[in-house]
């Protein structure tokens, strides 16, 4: 299988000489093209830091991170930001939008830098994405006129507008009720079915259980992993049980 992200012996500290906190300790992880991987672990175990270092959003102290064949650690900042913008999508727990733009324009805006002359095309693509994620009728609303779940779907559309190879999500369902969370997850499952690789950080066993592989972190290391395979709808409860069981073991 083709590797899309390859992190080798990643070390990352925060703080200064007097108060240094080692957050990632020799972490090695490979994400394969087309996978849907989630990362679980206790609060402070380093999940978000791992996501940010693997996506080149944050630097590492030593080790290496490759996106396909390109070492992100060796990239210049401009190259890195091109890769992040063109090849990666990001979805956060609380998506940030410009309040004076419509939802559609908020989705289109990040793609304008690379496609200045194609505003019409981009708008039509954004509209298609909105329809696909179930918010087609919200295109011309302002962000204040949408629910948290609807805004999160808009965040997914924005992440998809440049047709990224991989989407990184940091607790994308963390601020939503269980129904809205499942709707967002269904969007991710569909996107993954269509070929986009997904890596999510989550505290929710039900979210992790629907991914294909779960990495468990503790104290800055990946201490366990659960291979679930692609989701088949009949077995969700069983998958949740397996994830919860592993998670409890990790927390002990
Ligand atoms: N920018 C930063 N400066 C200093 N310390 C940081 C910074 N970012 C993270 N940390 C520390 O690194 C450790 C790991 O943080 P991280 O956010 O990666 O953990 P997490 O597993 O995602 O936690 P949570 O589930 O609570 O979001 C924590 O102790 C955190 O306080």
UniProtKB/TrEMBL annotation:
Q: What sequence ranges are listed for the domain ABC transporter?
A: 5-244
Q: Which UniProt keywords apply?
A: ATP-binding, Nucleotide-binding, Transport
One GO cellular component this record assigns the protein to is: membrane protein complex
Q: In which domain of life is the source organism classified?
A: Bacteria
Spell out the molecular function terms from Gene Ontology. ATP binding; ATP hydrolysis activity; transmembrane transporter activity
- The residues forming the signal peptide are none
The record's CDD domains line, in alphabetical order, gives: ABC_MJ0796_LolCDE_FtsE
> What family is this protein classified in?
Belongs to the ABC transporter superfamily.
- Name of this chain's protein: ABC transporter ATP-binding protein
Q: Tell me the classification of the organism that encodes this protein.
A: Bacteria, Bacillati, Bacillota, Bacilli, Bacillales
């Amino acid at each position: 299988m083709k590797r899309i992200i390859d992190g080798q012996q990643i070390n990352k500290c925060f703080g200064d000489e007097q108060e240094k906190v080692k957050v990632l300790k020799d972490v090695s992880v490979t994400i394969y093209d087309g996978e849907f991987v989630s990362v679980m672990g206790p609060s402070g175990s380093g999940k978000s830091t791992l996501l940010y270092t693997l996506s080149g959003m944050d630097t590492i102290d030593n080790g290496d991170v490759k996106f396909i064949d390109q070492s992100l650690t060796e990239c210049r900042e401009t190259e890195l930001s091109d890769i992040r913008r063109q090849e990666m999508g990001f979805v956060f727990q609380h998506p940030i939008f410009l309040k004076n733009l419509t939802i559609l324009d908020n989705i289109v805006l990040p793609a304008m830098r690379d496609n200045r002359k194609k505003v019409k095309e981009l708008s039509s693509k954004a509209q298609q994405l909105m329809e696909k994620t179930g918010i087609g009728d919200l295109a011309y609303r302002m962000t204040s006129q949408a629910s948290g779940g609807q805004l999160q779907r808009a965040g997914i559309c924005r992440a998809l507008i440049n047709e990224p190879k991989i989407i990184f999500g940091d607790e994308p369902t963390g601020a939503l009720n269980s129904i809205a969370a499942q709707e967002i997850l269904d969007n991710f499952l569909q996107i993954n079915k269509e070929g986009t690789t997904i890596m999510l950080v989550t505290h929710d066993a039900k979210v992790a259980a629907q991914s294909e592989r779960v990495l468990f972190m503790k104290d800055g290391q990946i201490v366990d992993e659960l291979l679930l395979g692609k989701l088949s709808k009949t077995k969700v409860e069983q998958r949740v049980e397996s994830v919860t069981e592993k998670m409890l073991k990790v927390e002990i």
